[in-house]
Amino acid sequence: xxxxADPNLRRRRVLIVSPHFxxxxxxxxxxxxxxxxxxxxFGWEPTVLAVDGDYVExxxxxxxxxxxxxxxxxxxxxxxPARWTRRxxxxxxxxxxxxxxxxxxxxxxxxxRADLLFFSTTMFPAMALGRLWKRRFGTPLVLDxxxxxxxxxxxxxxxxxxxxxxxxxxxxxxxxxxxxAVDGLIAVSENYHRVLRxxxxxxxxxxxxxxxxxxxxxxxxxxxxxxxxxxxFDPDDGLCHAVYAGRLGTDMRLVCRAICEALAAGLRENPDxxxxxxxxxxxTSYALGSEAxxxxxxIAQAMGLADFVSEHPQRLPYLEVLxxxxxxxxxxxxxxxxxxxxxxxLYPYILARKPLLAxxxxxxxxxxxxxxxxAGEVVAFDSGDSSDDIAIRLQPALRNLLQRLPFEPQTNLAxxxxxxxxxxxxxxxxxxxxxxxxTGPTVPNPELxxxx
Length: 452
Hints:
Blueprint: E1 12-17, E2 24-25, H1 30-35, E3 44-51, E4 59-60, E5 74-77, H2 82-85, H3 93-111, E6 116-120, H4 128-137, E7 141-145, H5 162-179, E8 184-187, H6 190-199, E9 208-210, H7 217-223, E10 240-245, H8 253-269, H9 271-274, E11 277-282, H10 297-302, E12 309-312, H11 318-327, E13 330-334, H12 346-351, E14 356-361, H13 365-373, E15 377-381, H14 387-404, H15 413-416, H16 421-439, H17 446-449
Parallel strand pairs: 1-3, 1-6, 3-5, 6-7, 7-8, 8-9, 10-11, 10-13, 11-12, 13-14, 14-15
Antiparallel strand pairs: 2-4
Helix pairs in contact: 4-5, 7-11, 8-14
């Protein structure tokens, strides 16, 4: 890798496509946002192509703009307004913005050749533009698979709404068409690589990297400079507030039930200690507005724990979530019953330097990360364990934590270094270098280059 301390050495250029971008707060733009301060250090000059926030349906968080270096070029395009496209049955941003993204990408690649195209988004149809640009300009293509594009190739469920069946057919067509042009893959889970390489055996193993999102202490520094007051709880009310911020779902109901059972057992056995506990869960649903439904709260209500649990399914601004983590007395992180489940959201929890209790499958990478960094305690469970089995181990761990409060964990920050945004960007750039070195200089298609 080139030494970027020498300003005379040319950095390679990467065109990054991230339709969601600040001031929009969307989960799929955070890898790009966190990496932008470090690309140049590792030999790459970034340019971002995004959709103007006025055309995006989502939470706006202007504070996030403070985390983007001022000298990074960001080109924003319009999209067909969703209020128009919904009249004909769709609102997907990737489709509404596709012609504008394509045209601006062509303009940028004509003006200044890129050494690499990098798509980091869950707006998967936008990734198909990478094959078009590669055919036209010869630019190598890397995709960031934050979620599965197509989960499987099972037959369509005839009971699902027609637009869902149409969307699935589109994804089943675009994924293999796009993968034909892929030079490299980044994914948050090793299992994603395994499935994609089985499906598309021409993708070589050396061109795949498993990289969760990193975390940056700079985000916490920005979060404390302003923003809304705590809307979830009063940190000075004398109660003991636990916070979890992130997705819940059917794969996490086992752990949600175990948490409620452990809390109920604690209230029976140690009422003076446990009755001060208040568990707050925020941003637990990907759905918007009234379509967002709670996951843990109905379980708590059925067990008579409604006074001890609150759940706010709607997403909160990212920096507001960081302020909640810092305001909490302790952090409780539930995991999935899927052994392969990883949680990139774990890293901000560790950087918050608050007492941490995680409940995860024994095979999850989270177990090793928490224990290696000494950031907290993990209650691990196995496939086949019941919620009662997990609660029996969780209740004493929770009791011991409550008895020790308040305290700050002695986190091993040196052990946390591999999970920082800087290190994750370095590993990205290692793959970028490898692909750029192997593919050589880009060679535009002269026939297509001359077309509009």
